Amino acid sequence: MFDPERLKAIEAEKEKWDQRVQKSLQKAPERKEHFTTGSGIPVERVYLPNHVKDLDYMRDLGMPGEYPFTRGVQNTMYRGRFWTMRQYAGFATAEESNRRYRYLLEQGQTGLSVAFDLPTQIGYDSDHPMARGEVGKVGVAIDSLKDMEILFDGIPLDKVSTSMTINAPAAILWAMYIAVAEKQGVKPEELSGTIQNDILKEYIARGTYIFPPKPSMRLITDIFEFGSQHVPKWNTISISGYHIREAGSTAVQEVAFTLADAIAYVEAAIKKGLDPNVFGERLSFFFNAHNDFLEEIAKFRAARRLWAKIMKERFKVTNPRAMMLRFHTQTGGSTLTAQQPENNIIRVTIQALAAVLGGTQSLHTNSYDEALCLPTEESVRIALRTQQIIAYESGVTETIDPLAGSYYIEWLTNEIERQAEEYIRKIDEMGGMLVAIEKGYVQQEIQDSAYQYQKKVENGEAVVVGVNKFQIKEENVNRKILKVDPAVEELQRKKLKELKEQRDNLRVKAVLEDLRKAAMDESVNLMPYFIEAVKAYATEGEICGVLREVFGEYVENVVL
Amino acid sequence: MSEERKIRVVIAKPGLDGHDRGAKVVARALRDAGMEVIYTGLRQTPEQIVETAIQEDVDAIGLSILSGAHEYYFSKVIELLKERGAEDIIVFGGGVIPPEDVPRLLEIGAKAIFGPGTPTSQTVEWLKKAVEEKRRKESSVS
């Protein structure tokens, strides 16, 4: 792309410039000795064409919507349609959450995103001993199809796409969603949405696992298969780096471990006999939008290019749609401060802008009070407006991948890709991601990064505005924050009692027995059994109870 | 007199919350400061936490809760310690705990809550002092 003669001339000029810089430094040194990205990649004073001298435009960037997809997965990107504005929401009861979903849709969000409480995420009903104190706290409590029906009351599932952050019991919640849609007269093939369904990152960084790896992979690939056959517009997995980053990883690790997880899923599905050209189209991803603005943009581009190469070269995929890394982004929750929380509005804006300049398909922006609690209507509205202002007022959406060609951005995209590839190679040598997780390698890498960062904050090398610099003496502790009514737990227990009295318990017994038999046979796709079970109003806890019996429970590999 | 015994701490994740970054960072910082740390891992019941604490003969238990279930777990753990005659074990913690909830936790019997943004050095210093005071009281009683 660059004329070698010109590059030599630039290099010569650079050397002379360096000498002039030395003189400036004698008068006034730079702010620090070493400059790095947020993730520790050394950053030079200036980037030149020379830094990307081997860049081949068509090979390395290509056109938007075409291999290697560095510049984006659609050829019109935001000129065609903005990213989906999809705020993760849910708390207390299905009724309350339904209200919040309607509010968000009224305020202009364009897709739903369901947050479930921890008992639901871990396959416990609200009356289970392990659910004490947790019901409705971090998301909505869903014990049965009845709750699910209330959750989507008045929301047309043929018109709205829904993302559900559910992993170990994803198949069951998906079955409920399909059943609710059926009641609305909407067929599975009309449904659009995503289930997170990414168990590997649960073992690594998020913790809402239930079953051991082998049966978990079976459930996941059952979902891939069922989706390909019956729910073709559904993203059957959202392979996530967000949580890995939140646990303290660097940007490189976020890409590397996410794609390594993805490789493991693709391998498992292929082993089951599924065609990557088919299920590959419905893999989706989920990344973090963290603080280092330019690094994040480069990260998204690197991830897209690397994934496309992996699908093409490693898995011999020929369908371009199955090489596309389509992703949702969430601004980094761990960057939010409890001190001077209004500052978080600015953080989220910068992070959201990085996601947009990085070409995300879908975006959640955090609310400013989330270091303390779940968002209020007011704070989530500001978060949504952040996206809308970027979309309608900033102008960055009028052309595709505007930062392409920046020497720094292209150099950093290359560097992140290179380092991520190194990690993937290392993990391959270990025997793959499942082995790496079992060995604790991934967890250790993440933790080490987390600890290093904490040290930097405590010695002042990393500044957190309002926390270790620019603090104020009196923080305002009288803010209006969201509190989940502790009565929710009692309410859910009552509902469960009523449900069990009203439903056909013989039918429930029968479907659970059918499920148990099917679960014991690895060759059986369990989705139809889940659909039957939820329709009979078996509770989530009861269904997971059967699976716990058959599959066993995962025991954490504690890595400190 | 008796030689200086290392401070022993259990760092625990009660309940269903899977966010362990903070707990691990604090555990490591305490360990780097010369303390003996037992990190329990996730999904601990109050019974398991108290059992571990007693078996390991610790000076303190640190609870990490980001799920909003803090009032429940702090009170359960403290209650169980009382039942088992181990209320001399210092209970502290952190996580996502709104400032307005802190007084209640202290009322229940938690000795300190370290919210988001607290430097680990602060937790280390506090714990050293708290255990020192505890041991002074114990030796003066005996």
Would you write up a description of this structure?
The complex is a heterodimer of chains A (560) and B (142). Chain A is 51% helix and 6% strand. With 560 residues, chain A is α/β, with parallel strands linked by helices. Chain A folds into 3 domains: 4-52, no CATH class; 62-458, TIM Barrel; 500-551, no CATH class. In chain A, the strands form 2 sheets. Chain A has a 5-stranded parallel beta sheet. In chain B, helix 1 (21-32) packs across helix 5 (120-141). Chain B has a single domain, classed as Cobalamin-binding domain (Rossmann fold), CATH 3.40.50. In chain B, helix 4 (102-108) links the parallel strand 4 and strand 5. Chain B has 5 helices and 5 strands; from the N terminus they run βαβαβαβαβα. The relative contact order of chain B is 0.17. Chain B starts with 7 loop residues before the first strand and ends with a helix. The radius of gyration of chain B is 14 Å and the shape is globular. Chain B has helices spanning 21-32, 46-55, 70-83, 102-108, 120-141; strands at residues 8-12, 36-39, 60-65, 90-95, 112-114. At the A-B interface, helix 5 and helix 18 of A face helix 1 and helix 3 of B.
Structural key phrases:
heterodimer; A: about 550 residues; alpha/beta; TIM Barrel; 3 domains; five-stranded parallel sheet; 22 helices; globular; B: alpha/beta; Rossmann fold; 5 strands
Short description:
The complex is a heterodimer of chains A (560) and B (142). Helix content of chain A is 51%, strand content 6%.
In spatial order, strands of the major sheet of chain A run 1-10-9-8-7
Domain unit count of chain A: 3
Q: Would you tell me which CATH topology of the largest domain in chain A applies?
A: TIM Barrel
Number of strands of chain A: 10
